[in-house]
Specification:
It is found in: Endoplasmic reticulum lumen. Keywords: Coiled coil, Endoplasmic reticulum, Glycoprotein, Protein transport, Signal, Translocation, Transport. One of its GO terms (molecular function) is adenyl-nucleotide exchange factor activity. Belongs to the SIL1 family. This protein has 477 residues and is mainly alpha-helical. Among the domains are: 98 residues, no CATH class; 31 residues, no CATH class; 104 residues, no CATH class. It has 25 helices and 6 strands. Strands 1-5-6-3 form a 4-stranded antiparallel β-sheet, with no helix packed on it. The protein has a two-stranded antiparallel sheet with strand order 2-4. A hairpin with a 6-residue loop joins strand 5 and strand 6. Helix 7 packs parallel to helix 9, helix 14 runs parallel beside helix 17 and helix 20 crosses helix 23. The radius of gyration is 40 Å and the shape is extended. The relative contact order is 0.04.
Amino acid sequence: MLFNNSVTSVIILLFCQNGVTFSDSVKISSVKKYDESNVFVPTNEWQEIKRDQVIPKGLHVQIDLTTGMRRAKLLDSTDDDNQASQLVLSKNNDIENPNENLNKPLKEKYTLNLDKIGAIDPETLSEIKNKYRSYTEIKEDFKNLELAVKTEMEVLNDLLEKFKDIKNNKPKSSYNEINWDDTWLNTLVDMEYLVHQVDNARMFTQANGIENIVFPSLNSSSAEVRAQACRLLGAASQNNVPSKIAALESGAIRVLLHTFLSDQSPTVQSSALYGLSSIIRNFPLAQKLLINNGGIEVLNSVFHGENSDHLKLQIKILTLIDDLITERQEVNKEIKLISSRNSSNSLEQIEELEEKQRQYDAANLERKLMELDWCHHLINILQKQVVVQDLNSVSVDNKHYRKQLNHDDIEKIINSIISLFNHCLRNFKNNLLFKEIISNLESWYMVLSEEEVAHGDSDLYFTSLFKKIRHITISLT
């Protein structure tokens, strides 16, 4: 049998309201009258429907989706007694034009009723006109705008000129000075947004933006302006070699160190640190200049005296130092990796990396850190973090408390400890409090790691942190 279970088929039960011709496509715009000789005559047996045959009402239709063959028969009495009881080919308009009912709804839907439009009362029409402007009015508004599109460099150049006017027109009254500071600040913010783009940053430095805009802003009486000036310099220098060199040549490192040391605002200090880090990252020559200008001693001062409670700033400094140490270690790893390849291009790459390594060696950051007892800072800041978060007195089973923990800060401290672990090993081993804290952290993060694995978390953040702490514990034994 042609239509069996092995053949893909679909059975459609049609209660045809009109005699509809099955064809490849039905175009409403061109409907043909039916030919009585071409009407399908059904029986109680399945019969094939020929192409373009008109199908009467109330048939059981079957279509084979594999071959495209169509068959039909009368409805069984069990299917629908009323529909199958009669088969009358009516010569009314429905059969004469089988698609007329398809045309009607579309015509009614899309025919514009001009009578209804004319029936709108004058008051309603006036209300509509007042609510919406005419096309002529809108066109005139756009014409009057005279919009001119400027490039980012043109906008930056306008801001540079605007800054000159601001700096040269300082108001005499304190009231006007507040607005003046706001204008100054907003101009710096706009510049910061633009100099994130490499070419804009290069234009900014070539226009002496560091000397003429950043440095004068650092003398402002407004802490917000001073902080924004540092962020502007940081944005211009970040991942931008020409701007880094320009900052180095302008003496920006020395100026930022002075700002960091002398300014009492934590926000300004944090922003100055950002500016410094943007200049010296991946720039060993700048790192050497930082060390030669007493930069590590300046950063070290945050861990003593009045600034000892600035935990967030201390963690930022630890993170910066950790990044600088990691840079040097990555260069050493890359040299070993390229040396193992023995390719023709390896020699030039190795020479470049070895020159970079010599510059890192000349800076000798680790030696300076050991001179300033940096290992002691690592121990103290870890202890502070544990005290602040009260890790010793709260059970790891306290899930509500665990959600409030600052795991990010703990991770940064652990990374800093690992970076200098070999240099500080003796200090760590001889400090019982340090070993106790590490042991407690290991217990904490072991539980968090087990839960993370059990829940099927994809990032395994706690598991990674647990492994780092576990590595420290093993190395201390």
